[in-house]
Amino acid sequence: MKTILLGNNSTICFFVENPNVVHCQNELESLVKLSVRVHLFCTSLPRFDFGEAVIVHQILMDSNGLPSSKLLHSTVMLLQDQFLAPFNLGYWIGIRTRRARLKNAFKRASAIENIVQDLKLGELPMLSYWFDDWSLSLALLRKWKSIHSFSTQAHGRDLYEHREPSGKKLAFRRATFKELEKVYCVSQNGLEYLKHKYPGFQPKLALAYLGSERLYEAQAANKAKRKFTISSCSKIRNIKRIHLIAEALLNFEHEVHWIHFGDLSLDERHHDYSVGRMIRAVQNVKRQNKKVTIELRGDCTNQEIQKAYASGEVDLHINTSETEGLPVSMMEAISYGIPLLGIDVGGVKEIIQRGFGILLEKDFTPEALEEGIRSFEQRKDRKEISEEAKSFWETHFDLHRNVKNLIEKLTNSSV
């Protein structure tokens, strides 16, 4: 491994399809605050201005075919990916889709290569935010010797292969693994998963938690004058299972107020059944259970959500997803001392500690959810719980601390 010594004005190349995802934006902002200069390669342009610290390179692939040499290379890669793996009917059926993805990876790599060569960036540290087709493009560049090395972060959808619709297998994994320097998993659970799935690549695996930035100072609220309040935060999608909170509250026997932060609009690309189920469940609760009040705040900015947390109006944060990496929304909650109730999937158990959290089974019952909420409502040591949650955030999920550690690992030097 070649060591690149970087001083205060460090420079890296950062690759992501859409930099407007909140936790990706937060990571970029943290890099800037650490005086890291970033060459940002992306398809969607950022909706925010980082100033001169971030140089944006929009990657748009042309419609021309591949040169003959690269066409041959892509064909060989496709055949190796198809025939060297154990037979999988679902994976075979998706061969045309993978061929198109591979072709796009080559075109993306060629577009990146032009910029890297023109600006002489090939020796810089390179990081892909997702372990996806952008990582594959970087693997191609590494194979063509256009860059010295690259690493990638790995979250959830880009890590756990059972979440892949086409044959429950992620394409071109081994080809990417062979060329990369490190995979930085955002959860210990994800790290262990990859160690088991790809034992031959264990030396290339490492843990690097994401994190959140606490934007405001937590305020003490007058809890005696309001209902016990729970919150949840996500878009309404089937894998998030937010509708199960509403269904559990239908027969809730204690007074509780539920605030949900997240868009209720139907994403036509997914035809998500859970939106209608959520709306019906909320209507049923409002008609049949007067002890429960529900506030759907819709699509909120991260600042609006954190202001609500800082105000002290939330007593317990709930996450009901059936699959996760390690949710940033839970990190944000504990940064303000809000205890957690979550599901034992992915890396959720790594953030839910016994003192300030409850972990339910994946297929939990409404009764289990109600019991979990009641157990926190009845506790007398909420102040101590809150302090423990904040302390755990400071040592494990402080964004700036974790990004600094990641850059130190990436560059093999201090920032």
Q: What does this protein look like?
A:
This protein is α/β, with parallel strands linked by helices and 415 residues long. The chain is 40% helix and 14% strand. It has helices at 22-33, 68-83, 89-93, 95-119, 133-143, 173-179, 188-197, 243-249, 274-288, 302-310, 328-335, 366-377, 382-396, 399-411, and strands at residues 11-15, 37-42, 54-58, 126-128, 151-154, 182-185, 205-207, 228-233, 256-261, 292-298, 316-318, 340-343, 357-360. It is globular. The relative contact order is 0.12. Residues 1-8 have low confidence and may be disordered.
What topology emerges from the helices and strands here?
Layout: E1 11-15, H1 22-33, E2 37-42, E3 54-58, H2 68-83, H3 89-93, H4 95-119, E4 126-128, H5 133-143, E5 151-154, H6 173-179, E6 182-185, H7 188-197, E7 205-207, E8 228-233, H8 243-249, E9 256-261, H9 274-288, E10 292-298, H10 302-310, E11 316-318, H11 328-335, E12 340-343, E13 357-360, H12 366-377, H13 382-396, H14 399-411
Parallel strand pairs: 1-2, 1-4, 2-3, 4-5, 5-6, 6-7, 8-9, 8-11, 9-10, 11-12, 12-13
Helix pairs in contact: 1-14, 2-4, 4-5, 5-6, 8-9, 8-12
Tag the structure with descriptive keywords.
single chain, alpha/beta, six-stranded parallel beta sheet, 40% helix, 14% strand, globular, disordered N terminus
